Amino acid sequence: MGVSLIFKIAAVGILVAILNQVLRHSGREEHAFMISLAGLILVLTWIVPYIYELFQTIQTLFTL
């Protein structure tokens, strides 16, 4: 995992937070929720391969 992934996650978090606040103040809570959900799914798609690799490493470490 590189530093660039951490910066991408931070950028998505900042962007989602800003859009969430703008949409909530304009009275569009449903859209704000969808933006938050889309940001979460995007970040999870980036993180899942690393979690899988971690579990594979743990499995080979303990030879389960």
Structure description:
This protein has 64 residues and is mainly α. Helix content is 89%, strand content 0%.
Task: Specify the number of helices.
Answer: 2
> Count of DSSP E strands?
0
* Average pLDDT number: 94
Major sheet characteristics: none
Give the terminus-to-terminus CA distance.
25 Å
Radius of gyration, CA atoms, in whole angstroms: 16 Å
Find the structural class using helix and strand composition.
mainly alpha
Helix content: over 70%
Which sequence of SSEs, written as H and E, runs from N to C?
HH
Unreliable sequence segments: none
Beta-strand level of the residues, as a percent range?
under 5%
Q: What is the overall shape?
A: elongated
List the helices and strands and how they pair.
Layout (H helix, E strand, L loop, with lengths): L2 H23 L3 H34 L2
Helix pairs in contact: 1-2
Can you describe this structure in just a few lines?
The protein is mostly helical.
Key descriptive features of the protein:
single chain, mainly alpha, 64 residues
